Amino acid sequence: MSRLRPLAPLVASIMMVSACTVDAGAAGASSTVLRIGLSAESGALDPHAFTGNFLLLDAIYEPLVTYAEGGKLEPGLAQSWTVAEGGKQVTFDLRDGVAFSDGTPLDSAAVKWNFDRWVGNKKFTFFRASQIISAVDTPDADTVRLTLSEPYEPLLQELSIVRPVRLLSPKSATASGEFQKPVGTGPWTVESQSATGVTLARNDAYWGTKPKLEKLEFKVIPDSQARIDALGNGELDLIGGSYLAPITPVEARSLTDRADVALLTGAPDVSVILGFNAKGPAGDRAVREAVRQAVDTAALAKALLLGYGEPARRVFPPGVPDSGTDLPLVVDQDAARRTLDAAGYTPSGDARVKDGKKLSLKMLIPAAPAEGQLDPRAMAAAIAASLKEVGITVEIAPVDSAAYYDERAEGAYDITFFEGLGAPYDPSGSIVSLFTSGARAPLWATPATEDLVDKALYATTPAARSAAYQALYDAVAADAGFVPLVYRPRLWAVRDAVKGFAVPPTDVDLELTGVTVE
Amino acid sequence: MRVPDRLVAAGGYVTRWAADTVGVLLAMSVGTFALVLLARGDPAAVLAATRAGRPATPEQIEAVRVELGLDDPAPVRYLRWLAHASTGDFGLSLRTNTPVGPEVADRLGVTFGLVAGSATVALVVGLAVGVAGAVLPRGPLRGALRIGALLVTSVPAFWLSYLLVLFLALRLHLVPTSGMAGPRTWLMPMAVLGLPAAGVLSRVVAVTLREALDRPYVRAAQARGSRPLSIVLRDGLPNAAGPILSVAGFGIGSLLVATVVVEKIFGWPGLGAYFVQAAGARDVPALQAAVLVMGGGFILANRCADVLHGLIDPRARRSSS
Questions:
Q1: Is B187 part of the contact surface with chain A (CB cutoff 8 Å)?
Q2: Rounded Cα–Cα distance for residues A36 and A18 (Å)
Q3: pLDDT range class, residue A28, cuts 50, 70, 90
Q4: Among the partner residues A17, A123, A441, nearest to B55 by beta-carbon distance
Q5: Using an 8 Å Cβ cutoff, are A101 and A202 in contact?
Q6: % residues pLDDT > 70 (chain A)
Q7: Residue A126 structural domain
């Protein structure tokens, strides 16, 4: 017996693991449960914290204002609102008869309690509404009045984002304000949560249209190929979206062979953009102009997006509000050569030389793609090949993704990639970070663009706002300050057994009300 | 009262070993800290961006830096961490803002189960194939075992994983593609981790055992008429224990490293996956705890192999005291 002793902890540990886990049946979908892939752990399901998965929070918690298709703002928990005092006061009329899933009524006191958790708090400076609201008043149980320190038109759109504006039951925090458990007003409630997944149950007391499904099972599968396999094998019903279980175009292509899986694409909300550093060779407008003329974005879209996306013609895709009109971007490599010739860059072998210096651009890229994103190496190689055709040498500099954003902020590049933030933040969220010099890593910032950003943000009428946005895009285009490359595709894949699923308006939403599983 | 000599020796051995271990762990924590500094990538920037769900402005990053005390000089931060860690307080994760200690403990349970199961696969398969390789006559079967061992040792873990998923899950539908829910889901991750270690182990077992079986005492046992199985178990393996155990101890360390890949592919929320997330966010407290636990596990596995060797082989006991 003594010889076996060393094995005892081993046996015990195996038994321990088996005791901790539940044997879930592999196949055999039930008609009331939808199984959804999740690329990372759900995080804290506290709407006022920073780690919770957007879509899970969206399923549990609701906003006062809802972001609908095309950026339309619709009533959420507020059934109507009025703007007064020249835009410095917004009054919300709360929906009647709504309660949190623990029975606490949704009244103005509950809304104020929520707002007090983030209004004026320095941790939330990332959205301006948190700093600009100077008072939250509750004239009666049905009414919430926000007073702003200055008029701020994007306020309503910012109130539709997920963290931290969604409403938590005041009873689910301790007296000292510490988060206890996830309780919201939304169509789903949390049944269980662990490192391997989350199960949501239908909120049978939901005020709106109740979902047909009874349960949502989110399974954490960090590896993207493994999620594709799980979907193909019938262990998952739904994957996709930037924040849920991202799919790359290559993986999407591999799914088209499967007879029982449908691939869905949503209207894109992000443009991938090539930006320039004005300090260095790209400070010469002729160089930027030549790059813009030389990069074949249609070929790039075809090669990288495999038919799932379009070449970009705008700073924000057409589905984003105030995205303006398509910029006149024509690919013409001969024109690029002429531009460089005229600016004094003379051909010398494969390259070009001006004043004895070779024209060479350092292209900074993240060494590995972010989850579900286009591979920056492939994109960089394709762009470098286009530019080589006209005599511009590109030196590709891959760095670790955590270091990438630091190096970009320090300007350690001649050309690199930029992106918008996507719905529901854009366009107001991105123009500050892309076009003002106070941002950490602006795409293109000049006194003129900063002036136009201010005009766009503080415009008082929709027409003036649209005009200011268009003027901003035109100003950057006139500087040849960027090259819109492609619209990032929004890909989702769903098993044919799932009926009634449509790609949600934004990748932070999960709209499953009418969905059933056969 | 006189303490027996043997106890004094054992006490000295334990003290020396503990001092060695603490020294190695300290060096590891300095190394981890320094590597994160050298790797660039600003944890405050990563965290500020995580909070916003998008790139942060310089003021937001500065605010996070001050909030977390990341604006102090590096040596101050390290010593502050060390002072807390020495009391068992590993601090808050920068990424999740929750205590690192309990998080790592949860994940350690998962990884420990995975490593224990994989080590079982490695030991059982490695010993069986190794013994077969030693006692089988030279021929096609022995050659096949050797080539098989070489193959599973040479393929990278991620490739072996996808291969198993392709055949066992997608073609044959024997097991689910991923997850951590019951014995059927343990098979693939434990095989992916265990088989390469089994491959190495089987070669060491085969070679050292064949050598041991050539010794005069084995011929004497054969002459006494002992049965072949008993000769392998009683005369062969114990005498070949040294190299086998040190390879096994080292192999468990390598298993720990490979969990990083396997846990991601099969969706096991273990220490390896945690380490990768922490590294991406430059989450120093989480990285430190994960590295210390993994390093401690590695040292412990090797030390266990030494002690076991001493128990099995008296010569090793004499030489080490």
A1: no
A2: 24
A3: very low
A4: A441
A5: no
A6: 94
A7: 62-175
pLDDT digits (tens, 9 = 90+) for A388-415: 999 999 999 999 877 888 889 889 999 9
Q: How is domain B109-312 classified at the CATH fold level?
A: MetI-like fold (1.10.3720)
Those residues with Cβ within 8 angstroms of residue B226's Cβ, 6 or more apart along the chain or in another chain: B234, B235
Q: What percent of chain B is modeled with pLDDT above 70? A: 95
For B28, phi and psi rounded to 5 degrees? -65, -40
Which residue of B57, B121, B277 is the best one to mutate when testing the A interface, meaning the one whose CB has the most A CBs within 10 A? B57
Q: Which two tokens stand for residue A34?
A: 């939808």
Length of chain A: 518
Instruction: Tell me what ipTM this predicted complex has.
Output: 0.76
- Output DSSP code: residue A192: E
Question: Is the Cβ–Cβ distance between A433 and A439 less than 8 Å?
Answer: yes
List A residues 89-108 in contact with B (Cβ-Cβ < 8 A). Answer: none
Same domain, A390 and A473: yes
How long a stretch of residues is chain B? 321
Which chain A residue has its CA at the smallest distance from B37's CA? A403
For residue A30, pLDDT over 90 is answered with no
Give B-chain residues touching A506 at CB under 8 angstroms. Answer: none
Closest to A409 in 3D by CA, of B70, B47, B56: B56
Is cis: bond before A424, omega within 30 of 0?
yes
**Chain B residue with Cα closest to A424:** B53
Q: In a 10 Å sphere around its CB, with 0-12 CB exposed, 13-18 middle and 19+ buried, how is residue B83 labelled?
A: exposed
Same domain, A416 and A444: yes
Residues 217-236 of A with CB under 8 A from B: 219-223, 225-226, 229-230, 232-233, 235
Instruction: Quote the number of domains for chain A.
Output: 3
